[in-house]
Amino acid sequence: MEQDLQGKIGRFTLPEIFQLVAQSQKTGTLGIQKDDDIVMVYFKKGRIIYGYGPRQAYHIGELLRERGKITAEQLTDAVMAQSRHPSARRLGQILIEKNYISREDLEQVVRNQVEELVYSLLAWNSGSFKFYENQYPTDEEITVDITVEKAILEGMQRLDEENRRRAVTPLSDSILMLSPHLPEKQEQLALTREDWSLLALANGRRTVREIVRLARIPERECLSRLGSLMTSGILQSAGALPAETDRLALMVDRLANLLEHYLASRSQKPTATSPRLAVRDAIRIEPVTPKENEPR
Q1: Concatenated DSSP letters for 90-109?
Q2: Rounded to an integer, what distance in angstroms lies between the CA atom of residue 228 and that of residue 223?
Q3: Is pLDDT at 248 greater than 70 in this prediction?
Q4: Does pTM surpass 0.85?
Q5: In the chain, N or C: fewer CB atoms in 10 Å?
Q6: Range 86-100 burial, b when 16+ CB lie within 10 A, else e
Q7: What are the backbone dihedrals phi and psi of residue 61, each rounded to the nearest 5 degrees, phi first?
Q8: What percent of the chain has pLDDT over 90?
Q9: What's the average model confidence in pLDDT over 122-139?
Q10: Angle at 169 between CA 168 and CA 172, to 5 degrees
């Protein structure tokens, strides 16, 4: 009789447990618990086909909205439609019926959700696990097909990236500002629209926490981009703040310099309006005298 696959994480790592399920070509559900978090990963002949965690970071509807597949209004409409039925259908099915998304859109987001869940598990170094033979997700679930080897490789790469990001990203209460010295090889800078938005938010007064709150991108991506901007020397953690008037003028000049180099690298023809003036005009300089006890 085959011995049950269960035990404590620590004696075996989760990558080792996943590999054992894959090598044995097992079909069933791997239940993993750490403190109050319980995650279920479903396997079919050793391949990952689904995963569920009650504390998953994003609801499926939010994932679709974040990726631009649906609008906030469409999501609200689908959620309300779901709440009107006692035997609620899956939100994804409702969105398909309303022609807000295609089935391919839903399948891709479900795959991303399962992958993110599995990747996050690989960082667990404590807890318990048990494998339940021949238990599957319900027929309502959209399943995927992910090899354990791919999941482990990608998960380990994510962990390495996360560790590097933490090494360069300041604490959430740290204030970020443009560096007084731009990188020497400015023509090689490849800044995206999101990067420029973060540079505008890093005004020498906002903390990392405030920048993350105001940025229109997910927290993980925001922190990763901030870390990259610091590594490249464009941003730095602010020390003692200079006088407001001088500091704001200096920041506008630095941002203008970056924009000039960016335009030059794209070989764009100069316009009648100087980029430096355009940036200066576009940046809104707010009153700088803080009220007493007002957070910076």
Answers
A1: PHHHHHHHTTSS-HHHHHHH
A2: 9
A3: no
A4: no
A5: N
A6: eeeeebbebbbeeeb
A7: -65, -40
A8: 15
A9: 84
A10: 155
Q: How far is CA 52 from CA 23, 39, 121, 137, 198, in A?
A: 22, 6, 11, 9, 33
As a whole number of angstroms, the distance between CA 226 and CA 209 comes to 11
Task: Tell me the torsion sign for CA atoms 272, 274, 275, 277.
Answer: negative
Taken in order 9, 34, 60, 169, the sign of the CA dihedral is negative
Residues carrying CATH 3.90.930, the chain:
169-282
How many residues are given for the chain? Answer: 296
pLDDT value at residue 67 = 80
pLDDT of residue 81: 86
Give φ, ψ of 242 to 5 degrees: -70, 175
Contact assessment for residue 28 and residue 20, using Cβ atoms and an 8 Å cutoff:
no
How many other C-beta atoms are found inside a 10 Å radius of the C-beta of residue 226? 25
CATH topology of domain 169-282: Outer Surface Protein A; domain 3 (3.90.930)
Q: What are phi and psi of 6, to 5 degrees?
A: -160, 160
pLDDT band at 2 (very low <50, low <70, confident <90, very high): very low
pLDDT per position as a tens digit, 69-86: 899 899 898 888 888 875
Q: Are 79 and 93 in contact (CB under 8 A)?
A: no
Write the CA distances from 259 to 157, 263, 280, 287, integer angstroms.
Answer: 33, 6, 11, 25
